[in-house]
């Protein structure tokens, strides 16, 4: 057996012929990884939630505004910490025994591109980490202080998340349809539970927020126009 064939035989990822060098199996089970991940997220979000309840001179935020600010706080954490970890460690992720390494290897059962330094995936996650991570935290702050730039920023981030997610999903579907290359294991749990469900979240919620910001912008300009603050260009 050649070294490449040995690499193929020693990992559980798809496609079967994928070369994943230095793969080390996870020592943590899926439920344990989920518990650890949830604990880390809670450790970040609980202080954020407390800060938001003290925002606006201690009055806190309306329920809907609080939920949106918490969403952006969650996005900031995931984009910077989780996806940022991938960006800086993608070349050695298959052998990574750490918690974040094991989390990514668990998710890679639904998309092995995360263990092969796939060009599109690395570039897409780099943009997500560098742009949408910091801007998501800024959006949460803008909501907390009721900043007038909140909706333009919310719309920008949400559009970027939708665009990146569509490209991410469509490149996988394209490879499966035209190249007969599937990156997910065949079990429904991995494809529908990890790949479809988790990524659908970043289509549905950003879609609703983009709509919210679009309506808010339209209403703001309509109000200004009604008050005479925005005049249409005169035609001869």
TrEMBL record:
Single biological process term from Gene Ontology: sterol biosynthetic process
One of the record's GO molecular function terms: steroid Delta-isomerase activity
Cellular compartment(s): Membrane
Pfam families noted in UniProt: EBP
Domain spans labelled EXPERA: 64-210
Keyword Membrane (UniProt): yes
InterPro entries in alphabetical order: EBP (IPR007905), EXPERA (IPR033118)
Domain of life: Eukaryota
Record's keyword terms, sorted: Isomerase, Lipid biosynthesis, Lipid metabolism, Membrane, Steroid biosynthesis, Steroid metabolism, Sterol biosynthesis, Sterol metabolism, Transmembrane, Transmembrane helix
Membrane topology according to the record: Multi-pass membrane protein
GO cellular component: endoplasmic reticulum; membrane
Transmembrane segments: 33-53, 65-88, 119-143, 155-174, 194-224
Record's keyword annotation contains Transcription regulation: no
Family membership noted in the UniProt record: Belongs to the EBP family.
Protein name in UniProt: Emopamil-binding protein
Species of provenance: Delitschia confertaspora ATCC 74209
